[in-house]
Specification:
Elements lengths: L2 H20 L4 H6 L6 E5 L2 H11 L3 E5 L14 H8 L3 E4 L9 H9 L3 E4 H5 L23 H18 L4 H26 L8 E6 L3 H7 L2 E6 L9 H14 L3 E5 L5 H12 L5 E6 L14 H16 L5
Parallel strand pairs: 1-2, 1-3, 3-4, 5-6, 7-8
Helix pairs in contact: 1-4, 3-7, 7-8, 8-12, 10-11
């Protein structure tokens, strides 16, 4: 265990002792009574944070640990993050090893009887998960790229919050169902847009292999330069293999991601050019993080619409 992680785990214990010293009733009873304060919810990614806002509105005090452009595969919890989680009533994270460097912290929170929920693990059954070819026995964590799967996660968040704050259970459940209706509409939009691209041209090449659920749901052949986790580096052989594929299939556009360096895709583009073919960068996609707060792309619905519109424009060679 690293010295930094040791300090963090000591901090967890310290915060727990302070909380215990101030409490007059058991932790489980305190967590169920929100008559005098809002329920404190911590979300790891801003994708999950946006979902909590849709389901809970202003009924909760929400803290989101990772902002725009942050890569959750590489993210390490700071001491401030750990303190916020230790003081929370509910900690929501994606799971399926998306936030792999925070695993021990989540385990410590669960031992402290803080409601700690791995949303994708709980809401998406094995039969609907995509197995990882890179990590045997594991699954691709990027479930939100299939809008129908994100609707499952939405209902699960509604239920988690309803069971924690029973006085407002109906509100959480009704908000979740209303948002699911919006997601159903979004799913239909993505499907219709995808069908604008002829089946033979539906090839999506991105910085890392985050879009497999998107590909399965909307009939795209998806290739990523890096694997499902950005912690695995792409080598020169990976660049050349992907360049060969682009030239062979005459792919018109590659796509970069907001949370991953564009250097890898630029290297593929240069390798393609060296083979006598020209491929453009079709645009930037929101992969492991949403956009800036206050923009359409700062919401899940806005980011998904941006992604499909950008992909379709790039593959159909429409003006960007």
């Amino acid at each position: 265990m690293s010295q930094s992680l040791s300090r963090i785990l000591v901090l967890i214990v310290g915060v727990g002792l302070v909380a215990a010293g101030c409490a007059r009733q058991p932790a489980a009873d305190r967590a169920a009574d929100f008559s005098d304060r809002k329920m404190r919810v911590v979300a790891t990614t801003n994708i999950i944070g946006d979902l909590v806002r849709q389901v809970a509105g202003d009924r909760v005090a929400l803290t989101t640990l990772m902002g725009p452009g942050v890569d959750p595969h590489l993210y390490k919890a700071s001491e401030g993050d750990v303190q916020r989680m230790a003081e929370a009533d509910v900690v929501l994270y994606n799971g399926l090893d998306l936030e792999g460097k925070m695993t021990e912290v989540f385990e410590q929170m669960a031992r402290r009887q803080i409601t700690t929920v791995a949303l994708a693990d709980d809401a998406v059954p094995d039969s609907l998960r995509i197995a990882s070819a890179e990590y045997v026995g594991n699954h691709d964590p990027h479930v939100w790229f299939d809008v129908a799967l994100w609707a499952r996660v939405t209902r699960h968040v509604g239920e988690v919050l309803a069971q924690k704050d029973t006085a407002h259970a109906d509100l959480y459940r009704s908000n979740a169902e209303a948002y699911v209706q919006r997601l159903d509409s979004l799913d239909r939009y993505v499907t219709a847009q995808a069908k604008r691209v002829p089946a033979a041209q539906r090839v999506l090449i991105t910085s890392h292999d985050a879009f497999s659920y998107f590909g399965r749901a909307y009939a795209f052949d998806v290739r990523g330069l890096q694997g499902i986790s950005t912690s695995s580096e792409a080598g020169a052989g990976d660049v050349q293999a992907l360049a060969d594929f682009v030239v062979e299939r005459r792919i018109p556009a590659l796509f970069v991601e907001t949370s991953v360096s564009p250097r890898g895709i630029q290297a593929v583009r240069e390798a393609v050019r060296a083979k006598g073919f020209e491929v453009r960068v079709g645009g930037t996609l929101y992969g492991d993080a949403l956009g800036d707060a206050g923009t359409p792309e700062g919401t899940y619905v806005g980011a998904v619409r941006h992604n499909i519109d950008t992909i379709v424009q790039g593959l159909l060679r429409e003006p960007i």
